[in-house]
Description:
Layout: E1 4-9, H1 27-38, E2 42-45, H2 83-94, H3 106-121, H4 127-135, H5 140-152, H6 163-166, H7 170-179, H8 181-207, E3 211-216, H9 225-229, E4 234-235, E5 238-242, E6 252-253, E7 258-259, H10 261-266, H11 270-279, E8 285-288, E9 297-301, E10 314-316, H12 323-336, E11 341-344, H13 352-361, E12 365-368, E13 373-374, E14 380-381, E15 391-394, H14 403-409, E16 413-415, H15 416-426, H16 430-437, E17 447-449, H17 457-464, H18 472-479, H19 484-492, H20 504-515, E18 521-525, H21 526-530, H22 564-569, H23 572-582
Helix pairs in contact: 2-3, 5-8, 12-13
Amino acid sequence: MQKRSGILIALFSIYSHQSEGIGDLTDLKTVIDWCASTGNSILQLLPMNETGASFCPYDALSSFALEPLYLSFHELPFEKNSSVESRIARLKNNYPPEKIFLDYEIRYEKLQVLWEIFVQWDRYDSLELKRFRKDNSYWLEDFSLYKVLKKYHAGLPWYDWKVQYRNREKLALENFHIEHEKEITFECWLQWQLFRQFEGVKKYARQKNILLKGDLPILVARDSADVWAHPEFFKLDFAAGAPPDMYCAKGQRWGASTYNWESIARQDYQYLKEKLKFAQNFYDILRIDHVVGLFRIWSIPYREPFENKGLNGSFDPRDESLWREHGRRILKVMQDSTAMQLCAEDLGVIPKACTETLQELGIPGNDVQRWVKDWSVRHDFLAPQEFRELSVAVLSTHDTTNWPAWWENEAGTVDEDLFLRKCNERGIDFVRVKSELFDASCSCHGRLRWLEEIDSVDKLVWILRKKKEEVGDFIDLYLNSYREKEKLWECLGLNGTMREKCDTEIVAAALRIVLNSRSLFCINTIFDWLYLTNVLPGDPYQYRINTPGTISAKNWSLRLPIPLEDLLKHKVTKEIRKMAAESGRCQ
Length: 587
């Protein structure tokens, strides 16, 4: 619990000269070396859980099982000079790391090679594997059976399986297990090998005095081993999401079912405790995703048309007076069940009950620089000394644009879809006011930049042709976004006229804000750090890990254009270390 800085990476985003088409667990040791060289002492990872067809790590097939794509061939037992070696070489050639987006077709080819290695191994009665299966019996057998049943049903979700498997009829499952024992053992073997390699990464990190920070998704996919094995823990008639806000006009619908916390509590929260127990094998710090969802979660009827996204949901629990105790009870169970330092992702509209409970329990939240503002009085950015001390300061997250892309395209703007919806609700002519309020030359990517001459609330209201009391939300949008870039330029402390295009000097000034903040931790994405140099060419808008509410091959697949070995030797390493040292966070 001392001031530290860190780096956030997604394992699919990095690679070394040794990688076979995708970054793997062995590559994390090189990332740890780079962290140490830069003076950063925290390495944060996106969730490492096995993903489904969308490859979204926050919509995983299990709260426990790790993603087999991240296994390193270099630490697996296979015969040298065998067909396995030639297949690994083909894998490396077929999926060159130079492409900016990962091709997830690699999953199917890599699993075929892993199956061949498993067959070669042929020690299915291994005492160590048996011990691993016993130690993780709470989840592993159900998960492995689920995976093989899913393959047997040609990839269909569990709720579309044959009735005896869907309903977990005991005799049917026992017979299936006997008939498919080798395939089920293969799934256990994969998880065992992942466990061993990941444990080795944690041991290496400790030798280098680097803390590993994991990420615990609040939800699990509706089609997952967890839901199939424990349907009583979930409200299957609902889908989780987020209500509309100034960044997502229709809100969000994530698809995952919400929790039945009453049912989980009746089993003394064992499901939650087992998640933490398994995660603690790998991490020193754990991020609780969407922590406000433990207090109340936006719950959308499952049969609601998907195009409505989060418009027609409601909070669960509905009674606001229950939120504080609901969230506090779950967080206290978590704290009492692990030695990991918990951190919380507390972004969005956060009720006071959540903020005060995190403070009471000593759980740092997130302070994202672009949103650390006085939203109601000054309508301006907070200074570094005004950040929350009990927080993790960041420039960007995996769900936002990187900071340079925000600066160039989003600062000083409003969301076009949101503005359109608000106009339609009030009978305001959107086409007319769009041309009178916003600068078309500086508006792109669905964001609208205010015209300079709209320099007062009175002008805004006059153009809207409504009474001031009828457009309070429009006024709020205006006050918190008009000349936002100019306001931040003053905070950055840079000389000269404000520049529209981002450059290394501007990025460095932004990084100093979060590094010099009061926040306990300061963790920035590897992409924001690398904007200190020229590693990332072209429009920064293309370097985005995920765009919430969208399904795209560009989500969860972004990669760095530089191998880890070159990064270790790059001049940016010394620049980052210098900045960490100047902020007093260098370890």
